[in-house]
Amino acid sequence: MSFDGTDAVNIGDPASGVLDFGASQNFTIAAWVKSSDLTRNYPMIISKNNFATLPRIGYNLVLHSSIDSSPWAVELFDDTGAQHWIDGNSNIADGQWHLLVAMRDGNTVRTYQDGGLMTEETDASYSGSLLNSQPLAFGKLSDGGLDFIGSLDDVRIYNYALSLAEVQALYNTAPTISMPTVSITSPASGATLSGTVTNVNALAYDPDIGSTDGDGIANVIFELINSGGTTVASTQENIVTYDWNPLDTTLYPDGNYTLKATATSTPAAGGTSSSTSIPITINNAPSATLIGHWKLDDGLGAEKIPNGNFGSNISGWQSDSGSGLSWQNAASGDGSTGYMRFNVVSNSNYDRFGYTSAGVTVASTTYAVSFWYRTSSGITGNLRAYSAPNISVLGTSASWAPDQITPSTAWRFYSTTLTTDAADFPMFGISKLGSIGSGTFDIDAISVKAISTTVLQAADSSGNNHTGNLTNGPTWTIGPVSGALNLDGTDDYVNLGAFNFGSVFTISAWVNINSGRTNIQTIMANSGSGSTTNGFRLFVNTYATSNQRLYIETGNGSGNNSANSADFAVPYPGWHHIVAIVDRAGGLANAYVDNVQVITNDGILTDFANNQTTHIGQMTNNTYRFGGKMDDVRIYSGALSAAEIQALYSAGTP
Predict the structure, then answer these.
(1) Are 482 and 552 in the same domain?
(2) Phi and psi dihedrals of 307, rounded to 5?
(3) What is d(CA 21, CA 31) in angstroms, rounded to the nearest whole number?
(4) Is the Cβ–Cβ distance between 239 and 220 less than 8 Å?
(5) Distance (Å, whole) CA 519 – CA 583
(6) Tell me: the pLDDT tens digits for 46-99?
């Protein structure tokens, strides 16, 4: 029987007086007891005693004396008002079952624990009368209070003193203790798991309490154990239903594992535990094959900033005035640890900082510049990247980036270009523009790379030799993954030549459409314009609008069908990760923007052309050109999984 500290059992006071013991009358109290409670003073296991009124007459079996590790005890109050406390010389609040025996044999009191003698005390006063009219109670005092938390079993009271042999016989016939029932209901034994799993479930109950999920259960612990026996992940679930949601299997190597569930009953139900296990396999092998990958960083030179990531210091960086620099040992916007802080004072000077220990820029060169930054709320104006002969020179002797750095209290990715003239080099820096308030400007992952005007191809890093030819002068810049391509929206595009997409394919790209763009913005197409033109077209905006809707349009020469998102799925300007999954065989399309699904199983044609000339940034009849930046364009044979899409998004999140 279990007790939660608020309940108890009242046996009563039999008229026969069988539970009362007069002067010099021998008796024995025996009980199996289990508890781990150390939060209460004098918790009563068994009591027949009028504690609230004087004189206190009777007997108690007590778990311990106070909120500590004191021993259990038997307590005797005789008719003279004397109190006798004989402890069992051991604390048993350890969550395990113990047989406790206390007896009076003449004027000797003995205590036994788990079949062994613990204490033996002799005193003439121990033989006094214990007769009283109080009820026998389990789990509290006879007249209330000093409640017990734990479990009792096989309580016995004898009207004589048991022998050692009888005590040991009781111990050797220990009661059967129920164990929780637990089973893994999902996944099935031997199942193969991949990606993020949301259906790891267990059913658990204590049969002594009930048979409904959660009856008598304190918690269920799930464990994922590798083939070497090491627990690589675990979670404790305290609330019905018991499920591990989510379990991200992509965090662990492919292979064989054991899924284990351990249920523990509540203290009131005995606090016992039992486990069950099933074998599972984790397999996150790619579900799609990369058949085309254009990083779009071909026209960028080597990194010019030796210390722009601030992993441990800000060596090489210098400020020109009271707005000092400091290194911060904390996470920055790109997820790394360590960044530089520019402490901006409030004045009208063009306070600035720069990299001065080595030449960064050279004359008459255009650079791609990017970094992560944030500003405190006290910064109300703008800053701008520049190049100058040294940190002391500004004004007309500096080349400035064309766009300012807008204050942002959240980390933000920034990219721009910077063109030096014949004199404004070799130092790169960032400066205030007039009085901008006071506060801090945090910066990390600073990159400065020279932009080539002679590299006119985009290499295919998939190894399939689908080299892209830059047409009409798109320029290299910085994107969220690495380099990027800036398309002017007038005539720039990349020609991939003939490309065989297969029957199921995925297109992935980072895009940043210029502010104010209207009409169709083509990301990729293998056909000219016209809804029935044979092929497919991936683009943003409905014709003649700027509704920021994403389209996957297919035509077969005579008919058409298109899948599209709701309005504002691709807001601009700003970098966004676009994924389009096209199932030509099944006639369905899906799409994601920034790892959020925006098109779900929308219908498309099953017979559109899938092996012909393909362009990035326009339709193949030189229409509906893209104005903005693109980075890390990929084509996969097959459909990417949700986990793979998330990984691509996380790798480039700006």
Answers:
(1) yes
(2) -130, 80
(3) 18
(4) no
(5) 27
(6) 999 988 888 889 999 999 987 777 899 999 999 888 999 999 989 998 888 899
